[in-house]
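Listing 4. Sequential folding, example run.
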Amino acid sequence: MKAIVEAANYCSERKIRKLVIESDSLLMVNIINRSWKVPWELQEYYDELQQALVEIAVTVQHIFREGNKMVDYMAI
């Protein structure tokens, strides 16, 4: 969740108005899409994310873990 918040803040600071978030965490996708209740442990991050996304049109998509192979490779 922290990485998503940081990315949203980055986009907000640079006046990016459209954002697509892809996550392999179905929990994060459903929380951001407001399908599931936010766990108390994540409430602070969620509130910060909502502030960052005020002026951004965001699309949140679930991807399978296999879709992250390139990112995993880049992180090494």
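-- end of first protein; second protein begins --
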Amino acid sequence: MAPTTDSAQRIQELKQFDEAKTGVKGLVDSGITSIPSIFINPPEVLETLKPSRYTGAEIPTIDLTGVNIPGHREKIVDQIKSAASTVGFFQVINHGVPLEVFDHAIAAVGAFHEQPGEVKAPLYKRGVEGVSLKSNQDLFHSKAAYWRDTLMVQFDPKPADPKEIPEVCRKQVLEYHRQTLPVAELLLGLLSEGLGLSTGRLKELTLIGGQTFVGNYYPYCPQPDLTIGFRSHTDAGVLTLLIQDDMGGLQVKYKEGWVDLKPVPGAIVINIGDLLQIISNEEYKSINHRVLAQSSPEPRISIATFYNPGAVEDVYGPLPELTSPEKPAIYREFTFKDYLTKFFTKEIDSTSQPNHFRK
């Protein structure tokens, strides 16, 4: 059946946006005063953009001071377990990464995105290997596009050649990754202890052997009430570490509303991914979150590192130690390759990835 005129026009608009290779920033730089129709979200999404009655108090900030001191460590594990098993998000402070590392990385990501479109265009592609500039990874699968561009750098298991990272941000990106990887390793151990397992049990599964850096740029939007910075979704992997500037806009689903995850200077935002929810047999929760479009002339910049298994052929499912006759395995086993295939062939949305693997 031939597409309708409307759908044919939409496909043409999607192709024009994609083939321009300049992303959302290119639209802003062109001087638009209204957003293209492909970015207008459906009414059921726009209705939820109204202010929530919930506050940010439900997202805890956890101090890692004394994490290796007996007595202190157990308290920190309890705090992390509580957050991971309820709201699925928390922020950590006193994690050992100097604040200037964050400041320099945020500034460098901004400098990359604010280069002329023709400078960035050679990096624009759909694949996830190496280094790439992206805007709307699921552009041709989604109901509406979102107002964000992303610099993506693959670190493991097939690391990009550092020379491929644009010079304007290369030094800062590499240093940021070097400094934050130990924090991810520490948190994985604490989360393992929170499940009643040994510190190294989750690490044995090579759960953070795959590491992807993304530098997100949310430019000014002339009609923020009609679109969204990044739509409601859960993260597919194991663990996400994120830093953000002071612009705000990140929200976490809480009960029937949304909680603003307000920036805390020097904090790293941590959230549980879908795969860790599965492995923990739902002891830990992967929660929907989103980013609002920016009405401010200043852009919002954030940096996330997604930690995933390093071996795509490995088999995952609920850990046997976390199942029992009273609490049987909720999910079936699968290879991480099958898991990724499912993720990259659908719209990135609030449809839970784990539901595809329920028994």
